[in-house]
Amino acid sequence: MFDQHGDTLTRAMKAIAERGYWSAYPESPSPRVYGEGAAERGKEAFESYLGKPFPIEQQGTGLWIGAERSPYGMELGVTYPEPSPEQLVDLAGAAMPAWRDAGPQERAQVCAEILHRINQRSFEIANAVQHTTGQAFVMAFQAGGPHAQDRGLEAVAYGLAAMTAARSHARWEKPAKGDPLVMEKTFTVVPRGVALVIGCNTFPTWNAYPGLFASLVTGNPVIVKPHPGAILPLAITVAIAREVLEEAGFDPDLVTLAAEEGQGLASQLATHPDVRIVDFTGSTEYGDWLERNATQALVHTEKAGVNTVVVDSTDSYKGMLGNIAFSLSLYSGQMCTAPQNILIPSDGIQTDAGPKSLAEVAADLAAAVSRLLGDDARAVELTGAIVNAGVLGRVEAAPSLGEVVLESRAVTHPAFPGATVRTPVIVKLSQADEETYGREHFGPVAFVIATGSTEESLAVLRRTISSRGALTASVYSTSPQVLEAAERAALDAGVNLSCNLTGGVFVNQSAAFSDYHGTGANPAATASLTDPGFVAGRFFVVQSRRHA
Amino acid sequence: MFDQHGDTLTRAMKAIAERGYWSAYPESPSPRVYGEGAAERGKEAFESYLGKPFPIEQQGTGLWIGAERSPYGMELGVTYPEPSPEQLVDLAGAAMPAWRDAGPQERAQVCAEILHRINQRSFEIANAVQHTTGQAFVMAFQAGGPHAQDRGLEAVAYGLAAMTAARSHARWEKPAKGDPLVMEKTFTVVPRGVALVIGCNTFPTWNAYPGLFASLVTGNPVIVKPHPGAILPLAITVAIAREVLEEAGFDPDLVTLAAEEGQGLASQLATHPDVRIVDFTGSTEYGDWLERNATQALVHTEKAGVNTVVVDSTDSYKGMLGNIAFSLSLYSGQMCTAPQNILIPSDGIQTDAGPKSLAEVAADLAAAVSRLLGDDARAVELTGAIVNAGVLGRVEAAPSLGEVVLESRAVTHPAFPGATVRTPVIVKLSQADEETYGREHFGPVAFVIATGSTEESLAVLRRTISSRGALTASVYSTSPQVLEAAERAALDAGVNLSCNLTGGVFVNQSAAFSDYHGTGANPAATASLTDPGFVAGRFFVVQSRRHA
């Protein structure tokens, strides 16, 4: 039925080994790519959900719940079936054997078909992502659509590669006195058990698809528990998955939606004795709780961290400022990969525009951000809206943390007057303020931190990232020695490093099939999205042997 | 320095994918294989350790400890440096960066050289295994020597395969308006952190080598904490590893010995915040404790289980009885893979020797064991000695559990009059006695269990193994339908199955590079020894990228 995805899967498996550029789903929202009217149809599909029960046939308590509100100002009014956790786990378990028996190749084909249909509905999902996360539309389309789909396919490819690395049949022939001992052996992939994906508020699809597809392709049913503020993008995803599974002859309850308004459903499900896999993206506090309490499960978490920029010197001062300003502004710093701590020697840096004092670098960075976000209509297409009250509170509290280099600005959205839009605040700290910069201030809050030297900057990076984690680090230097020292510091701290980004690549962006997102080697995450370690443990091999 | 192991590693990596027969280290203790005088020199080397401090230069508290006693009757009197846990962890951490920087290939070469030198000292280690575990000499040589070495090499191969599955350098070239975006990316393997291997009493080398070499090859320093009753085989192993590491220019503290007399050193080390990997073989109780409490670490455990034989019918009645009798007798059932629960329909079975009632099968099995172990001198070469008082206590308690089909017999060892030798006890139970047969009675204790039918036998297998775990299961049937049903039951229970073993292959034996030991899919173990899931999470990949 879905044989047309064979080439895609083969190509994806090649890509995960080569780690060069490759993408299965076009990131351009152009009508030349997705067809005339696709954008309009997607918007209509999104609007058709508003104020109504979401069209999904799934067992539950009979109640319909949901309290999503767009960061752009309006209530969504979509409701979802309230689930019974026990029932969801039972339904998932009952659906598992037939899915196991389908085998790795068929499961991968079905997963590829699910992703293909998700891709066809990228505009619809983009609107849902925009109005649950506050992302600007283009970002919601790219990160919530094709980029998330690529990460999902990447997880399928890793799963398929892992499941097929060894043969499924072998003939064992051991030399012996007289006749050799000969046995026929069969090796069957079996799933670990019911999987739970706990979604986040800011990237509901991008952060959920790797866990969802890694578990599904390896034979596990998946319960998808979205953040109460970002249900719709995953509800659409789940509905598509159920539709494809049913068409392929499987039980749609292999993928179910566990919507809630915030009653602690995640903890109930994550500690259920029959839930054997948990994937979570969110706060360090809750991630740590899961790691300590869901000990019956394989737990993968992506948590907070202190993303760091080390500024030593540059041969492209303007390029550096523009690049950092963009990284701070994109989605108002509400990316788990956005830089927070910008470490600069207190006696300034050498640049192609001459030596610059720390005060000058800070002021020039502030000016670069102001310039980038000077025009309200263009600014909101970069910043989007503030996702929730927690982020807003941190932006408002930031001036009390130190000397304000750049004030946050409230911007009125030309199209959505109810949107909460804030530009980044930059606060100057000294190296001694580790209590402040040593923890994450998620949102548009950045620190310029005066250090004794670049060597001390690298010591701060090593120390803070080893203890608090980070998803990204970057360094600017014209010195090969400093770049090498930065690479060693990044290896010690276990963080991915970008060097001298001054053009169209930003530290907050990671490309599926080439860049690893997170490492597992620091407290911000337990594994990369996605790598062999991310799929391992989601399945086992059971053998049967008999004399030939 | 160790380039000669390149071919061995290449061959091993081929073997783990093909899963046919392959072995790197010959299992025959013949002088034609290991050389004239090798056996004698090994025995002398072993005897040279007795009653003295073990020759290892390692920091510690200054005290020398050790209280090993041979199950064959004598005190060993070997002492080892008493370690300070904090110091061991610090030494390990300090040794790590240079080992990381050596990279996967060099680490694999060093590991292969360690294994090569261990292999050269197989006779010495065999004597040490014999006199700490109670295994008979040939088994101590094979399972404690070449078979353990093969499992170690298998772990090295899985580690190397996992670390090199993706390229370490890539050029990323993304089409863009104007010039493409081009980046050079470097991917570096970094270790998870300090590893701990907790050894067991019965198979100190075989069960420790997979974790030891999986952690070491992936860049982690390893602290080896032997069982207080079986230190010597691992002390020799650690000394060899340290010698090779030092010759190769690395810090010998990458592998250290943590000897104890039973003061709870394992718990201290396993919950140390800087210990990031724990491999354990032993009791379910302590394994479960580790899984719940060492949450800062990746924990792999191999625990107890209820290994099961389903007897439905056979076309080789004599072969079946002989095969099961051998499996029960080998090392007095003190193998984690030895069968315990033999499920037989209460109305008997069909065989090539005519129909047999349950009572007949039980009596014939008892007779087969008695015949196999009738001659004391030959019996002890199969049973070895009882490893410790716990096992002896269970043998002595077994008759109270049900109707005794075969009494255990105390055998006087012709060469070691102080040895505690016991033949298996077989007790008949009914299907209703699940309280008794539903838990492990580690040692030479087997149950013949009357079930309502083979279908009910398979239901018992499914239920007991799903809830209590098992490392092995086997089935005897002439019916393809029953064999298929048994295979499905084994998949559901997540246990490796052997079908109709009537010749020279026994259910308790698993061959490295072909058979998986354990699955991870039932409570007896968290992963197979060894497979990709066993090495995953022991290392991470950290990337660095810059514009080309």
Describe the structure concisely for a colleague:
2 copies of one chain form a homodimer. Chain A has 548 residues and is of the alpha/beta class. Chain A has 19 helices and 21 strands.
List keywords for this structure.
about 550 residues, 2 domains, alpha/beta, five-stranded parallel beta sheet, about 40% helix, Aldehyde Dehydrogenase, Chain A, domain 1, homodimer, Aldehyde Dehydrogenase, Chain A, domain 2
Describe the fold and architecture.
- The structure is a homodimer of 548-residue chains.
- Helix content of chain A is 41%, strand content 17%.
- Chain A is of the alpha/beta class and 548 residues long.
- Chain A has two domains: 3-262, 3-Layer(aba) Sandwich (Aldehyde Dehydrogenase, Chain A, domain 1), CATH 3.40.605.10; 308-499, 3-Layer(aba) Sandwich (Aldehyde Dehydrogenase, Chain A, domain 2), CATH 3.40.309.
- A seven-stranded mixed β-sheet of chain A has the order 14-17-18-12-10-19-20. A five-stranded parallel β-sheet of chain A has the order 7-6-5-8-9, with helices on both faces. The first copy, chain A, has a three-stranded antiparallel β-sheet with strand order 3-4-21, covered by helices on one side.
- The longest helix of chain A has 36 residues, at 85-120.
- The mean pLDDT of chain A is 97.
- β20 of chain A pairs parallel with β21 of chain B, so a sheet runs across the interface.
Secondary structure blueprint with pairings:
The structure is a homodimer of 548-residue chains.
Chain A: H1 6-18, H2 31-34, H3 38-49, E1 64-65, E2 80-81, H4 85-120, H5 122-133, H6 137-144, H7 146-163, E3 169-174, E4 181-191, E5 194-198, H8 209-217, E6 222-225, H9 232-247, E7 255-257, H10 265-270, E8 275-281, H11 284-293, E9 298-302, E10 308-311, E11 313-314, H12 317-329, E12 341-345, E13 350-351, H13 358-372, H14 376-383, H15 389-397, E14 403-406, E15 410-411, E16 421-422, E17 425-430, H16 434-437, E18 445-451, H17 454-468, E19 473-476, H18 480-493, E20 497-499, H19 532-535, E21 539-547
Parallel strand pairs in A: 5-6, 5-8, 6-7, 8-9, 10-12, 10-19, 11-13, 12-18, 17-18, 19-20
Antiparallel strand pairs in A: 1-2, 3-4, 4-21, 14-17, 15-16
Pfam families (chains A, B): Aldedh (PF00171)
Domain Aldehyde dehydrogenase (chains A, B): 86-494
InterPro entries (chains A, B): Ald_DH/histidinol_DH, Ald_DH_C, Ald_DH_N, Aldehyde_DH_dom, PaaN_2, Proline_metab_enzyme
